[in-house]
Structure formats: C-alpha cells, structure tokens
Design goal:
Strand order of the largest sheet: 4-10-9-8-7-5-6
Number of helices: 14
Distance between the termini: 51 Å
Strand content: 15-25%
Number of strands: 16
Largest sheet: 7 strands, mixed
C-alpha cells in the first residue's frame, strides 16, 4: 500500500487488519490486545500513523541502546547486504570475526571466545549446555526473581511468573532467593546483612543439593524484568567464591544490561567480577538485527578444543547481524555512549527519579544504574505493599493500567512490569529528553498516588 496515495489512515487500517488476522503475539490473549500501529522511529522517539509521537523510556524491550535508526549502523547493514547477505556458520567471514574480536576486547578477564546465537534465550540455553558438558553435572541453580528467556531450558531457569504456564519442572533446575533488600526474604535491614544472608542461603542450597551435582549458578548481573535489582556490595564476589570452591560454573546473564546499559560495557565491571560464561544479546546490535552470544572463558573453551561442542545454530553469527554489531560497538566507542549512559544515570536520571519519589508517596523505592532504573510503586508507603498484587491481571491490575495510560497520554511510552515502571531510555538520550520524560512521569504518578490506601 502506498501511504502517499492512500493516506496514513488507510495504511494504518491495513496494517492493523493484517496484524489481527495473521500475527500471533507473545505473552498475550490474542483477542484482548490492541497493538499500536507504528509508522516510524528515530533517536529516542517512535510515532504512529496519526502523528502521535512517543518518547520511548523502554528502548523497545531494553535494546535500542543507541536509539532508533542510527545512520552509521543502518549504513553498515546496507553495505553488508550489498556484498554478502549470508553464509553458513562454519566459514570464516570478516564481519563475524571482527564482531567477535570487538566483543572479546570488551569482556572482562579471559572471556575471549565468542559463540554466536540469534538471541538471548539461545545464549542462555547454550551457556547451560556448555556448563553441563564441561562439568559432567546435571543441576543448574537460578534465582526466583529472574528472567532468562522463553525457550525450554531458559523458561524453566526463569524465576518469575512467566514460568508458570510453561513449567515442565525441567530436570536439574533448582531455584533460590537472591538479594533484594526492599523486599528482603532474609529480614535484612542493611545491604551488608542482605548480602551475607543471601550468600548463606545460596551456600546452604548448594550443600543440600549436593555440590558435585551442580553444573552452574546463573544470575542476571542486574536483575532486569524482576525490577532492576542491583546486587548489594560483596554479593557477586561471594557467589564467585562459592562457585570456585565447589567447581561450579558461574554464568552471568547480561542480555539486558550489556553494552552500556548500566554505564559500563558490561555490568559485572561495577563489581570487578568475571564469570566463566557471559550471555549477551539486545544492545550488541541495538536490536537492529537479532544477535546474541556467549563469551567463554579459557578453561571452558579448552574443554572443546579437541571434543566437539554438541550444539549449533543455522544462523550462528549471521553476517548481517555481525555487521550491525561491529557498527554498533564502533559507534558506541566513537560517540562515547557508554560514558554518556553513566553520566545520564548519575547526573540526570538518578537525581530526577529520586526527586519524583520525594513528591509522590506511591514511589516506594528508586534503584538503578546508568540508563536502567525502576520505580517501585506501592499502595501503602509504611508497609511497602505493592500497588498491585504479584502477577496481577484484569481488575487487580487497574492501578498500573491507569498509570500506564497516563504516561502514554502525555507522550511517554513506559515499560511497566508488575507494580513497577522501568526507566530504560536509549543510552544516548539527550538531557532535554530526560527532562521531558521526567516531567511526564511526574504528572502520571499522581494517578498512582490516587490509588493508595
């Protein structure tokens, strides 16, 4: 359909009609949703066919780290398509080799081998497989407050409620409580207590599950979907020590927080901790072409030096995706986007969100790093009762639905999860747009305030 000939309204109707007839949407009851028809996007904004512009405080699904339609990356994809669109993964090709080199240069420690996947869930799947083959052990420990993807093993490793509809009790998955002082399962009152008690709980879990049966512990470095859960000082180092003591592989899932999101290339750099396997995706290409992967330590790589790795993907290291990764990483380096993300968090988002919390009693806690933050919304400021129940739907979720509608009415596209709004704009968002987004949030939070007891 030609937009100029038929008009934007006709194009919108055609897009919506085809969507309703043929697209099956994830995590949704198909007849109960009404997806927005998006006409275009640039920088920190996208817009619909009626000309409504939205400042995207979600970075799509926390992956447009350099914003929409960055010309350098778009040009690199077009250039690669002009010379070689695809080639089987068993060949050596320049864009794939260069993407692996650039990633390995930025990962901590000796994570110098890169196995490419198509997305984050596949990265988790393969990291777990590597750990099990490397150790010869079956079990993997994962936190309850976590999300690791929607493929078979990844959804069972996931701790949040999205697991329930898929839970086949995959053999060898054991969940434990990670640290979260605001809703501490350990009755801690300080970060030091939360860290120590969470580590003791994990140690007890390891002991009672049998250390020699455990292949890996997997953690999100900063818990994304569960609420931007920043680990307390000492926790990740403590997990590293427990894994070393028992010969357990330590996997960090940085699918959401890698490539500048927290103000470092990788979030684990904040705590000077190096895992044995590091999963990435999303920001590596800013989502322009799907790409994920696992960065692998020397010891685990050595396991497969003369023993075939029992896994692979048809599109592993797809050349278009790798070209997008090369351009994204180089652009982030040239434009100082990682450093900009750190400054935006420290100087604008952090102070601005904390100021909102002072004005709005519905904000129970503000937490985050870089361009990755969450506001915990509550019904009762004294008890911290969530604004909506865990895994709420329908009428139970009405307060958050109303809050989200207020954000959109103001021109801000929010990322809402449970009783929280996650604030994750592009890492290169301008200060002016940060201020605009905070002003819209300020007004929308009055709606949340109205639902308090």
């Amino acid at each position: 359909m030609n937009a100029a000939a038929d008009g934007p309204a006709a194009v919108k109707d055609a897009v919506k009609d085809a969507d309703r007839k043929h697209v099956f949407h994830s995590w949704s009851a198909q007849e109960l949703i009404d997806p927005l028809a998006v006409a275009g996007a640039e920088g920190s904004y996208f817009w619909d066919y009626e000309g409504n512009r939205f400042l995207d405080f979600s970075s799509a699904l926390v992956y447009t780290n350099i914003g929409y339609q960055h010309p350098k990356v778009a040009a690199a994809i077009a250039e690669q398509a002009g010379k070689l669109c695809t080639v089987a993964p068993g060949f050596a090709v320049d864009s794939r080799s260069e993407a692996a080199r650039l990633i390995a240069e930025r990962t901590p420690g000796d994570l110098d081998k890169i196995f490419f996947t198509n997305a984050g869930a596949e990265a988790v799947e393969n990291a777990v497989r590597m750990a099990r083959v490397h150790t010869g052990r079956p079990k993997v420990l994962a936190a309850y407050r976590s999300y690791h993807g929607a493929t078979s093993a990844a959804i069972n490793l996931t701790g949040d409620a999205r697991r329930f509809g898929n839970d086949s009790a995959t053999a060898g998955v054991v969940h434990f409580w990670g640290p979260f002082r605001y809703r501490s399962p350990f009755h801690a009152t300080t970060d030091a207590e939360e860290s120590a008690r969470a580590l003791r709980h994990l140690e007890d879990t390891i002991v009672f599950e049998g250390p020699r049966s455990i292949a890996a512990v997997i953690l999100e470095t900063v818990g994304g979907a569960p609420g931007v859960l920043v680990p307390p000082p000492g926790y990740l180092a403590g997990v590293r020590e427990l894994c070393d003591r028992h010969g357990i592989v330590f996997i960090l899932d940085e699918v959401m927080v890698g490539f500048g999101r927290t103000g470092k290339w990788f979030a684990c750099e904040h705590w000077d901790v190096t895992p044995d396997l590091l999963c990435f995706a999303k920001g590596v290409t800013s989502g322009y072409v799907p790409l994920g992967g696992v960065a692998i330590s020397a010891a685990i790589a050595e396991t497969f030096a003369r023993r075939p790795y029992p896994g692979g993907l048809t599109y592993s290291g797809h050349v278009l995706a790798c070209a997008a990764a090369v351009a994204t990483i180089n652009t982030m380096e040239e434009e100082g986007i990682v450093e900009q993300s750190a400054r935006t968090g420290a100087e604008l988002l952090g102070p601005g969100l904390r100021a909102l919390a002072e004005r709005h009693p519905s904000v129970g806690e503000v937490r985050g790093l870089g361009t990755f933050w969450a506001l915990e919304l509550v019904r009762d400021a004294e008890t911290g009762e969530p604004l909506v129940p865990y895994n709420a739907s329908g009428a139970d979720n009405a307060p958050m639905t109303a809050f989200g509608a207020a954000c959109k009415k103001g021109g801000l596209w929010p990322l809402i999860a449970g009783n929280r709004i996650h604030v994750a704009p592009p890492c290169n968002i301008s200060g002016q747009d940060v201020a605009k987004g905070l002003a819209i949030l300020d007004e929308a939070l009055s709606v949340a305030d109205a639902h308090m007891v």
